Amino acid sequence: MPADSSTSLSSRTARSADPGPDAKAPPQGFGRGFVLDTWYFAALARDVRPGEMKRHELLGEPVLIGRTRAGCLFAMRDICPHRAAPLSAGRIVDKGDPGGDGTETVECPYHGWRFRTDGVCAAIPSLVDDQAFEADRIRVRSYPVAESQGMVFVFLRADPRSEAEPDHAPPTFPGVVGGEAKLVEVMDFDSHIDHAVVGLMDPAHGPYVHQQWWWRSEHSMHEKSKRFEPCDLGFAMVRHAPSSNSRAYKILGGTPATEITFRLPGYRWEHILVGEKQVLALTCLTPVTETKTRITQIFWSDHWVFGIAKPFLRMGVVAFLKQDGGMVNLQNEGLRYDPALIWIDDADTQAKWYQQLKREWTKSRGEGRGFVNPVKSAVLRWKS
């Protein structure tokens, strides 16, 4: 499929010869386990170039994400089943191996074993002609992968050996306008994804953690009241005018109206309308391991301000991420002792909803039924 295709799917999954458990354990309480059988953000599509491969770690698993020279996007476990060398350290070759998408294969850097993009072994160079060995019986685990809106998503299954097609598409986001993303920042938090999610959606920490002159401070705190509605795999703060003590919005001019949405497994976005112009601030939370979460913030806009103020906006985004990351490190000092956590209404209701969504997703998958959103319409009130 061409490299510039807006959406491509590769869900050819074979039984794997690599070791490992048949299934990951389901989530077991807050701060443990992962939401599975769903799509995680892995990379920007522009960073997966034709003929290249890169190693990623997703939910504690090494995942190779690559694109053939012909433009086929693929993902497979980044371990050669022969001697465990990372396949991503090899290269994509075209040696006439049959099967898969064309003849391009992934060649292991250690002994030259070659694998099709669906994970099936296509050739073992050390075999001589009279040695009968069926190479195609050896398979590397492959993952469904999709390209959408300039992003690459990987589907992580509860049973990694399953061959079932994903039963839902990756998320799509409003306001992806103006061509490529205008601003991208990435930072790793030393945190389980649960703590990272509730930290980023927490409405009350801003005046204490983010104290910039252009944002807000504890001296400008006042009561807020926002309506929330359930939506696809999550919930949304209904479109509203930004708070008067959020000074950064003033650079957009006009009368901004913003809607903030969260959905499983870890996407939070703010869609801002300023007349006919749009701004989308998307945060993707991707678990690297149980104790590390990658935060990727991506901004799209057709608003003129991004052409002029981009360096200052980048400084602001980096400052926010560093402040949140620093607070995560402080929080980890307390979490080492596994304390009981106190959740209050209404400021912590979004955190409660996240936990309810996570439990319902896992339960619905285990029972083989449709997901029933547990979030109900509500008006939440807090001071910040």
Automatic annotation (TrEMBL):
It comes from the Bacteria. It holds the Pfam family Rieske. Keywords: 2Fe-2S, Dioxygenase, Iron, Iron-sulfur, Metal-binding, Oxidoreductase. Residues 1-18 have a biased composition (Low complexity). GO terms for molecular function: dioxygenase activity. The keyword Transmembrane helix does not apply. Its EC number is 1.14.13.-. Residues 40-154 form the Rieske domain. Residues 1-29 are annotated as: Disordered. The keyword Transcription regulation does not apply. PANTHER family: 3-KETOSTEROID-9-ALPHA-MONOOXYGENASE, OXYGENASE COMPONENT (PTHR21266:SF60), IRON-SULFUR DOMAIN CONTAINING PROTEIN (PTHR21266). This is Aromatic ring-hydroxylating dioxygenase subunit alpha.
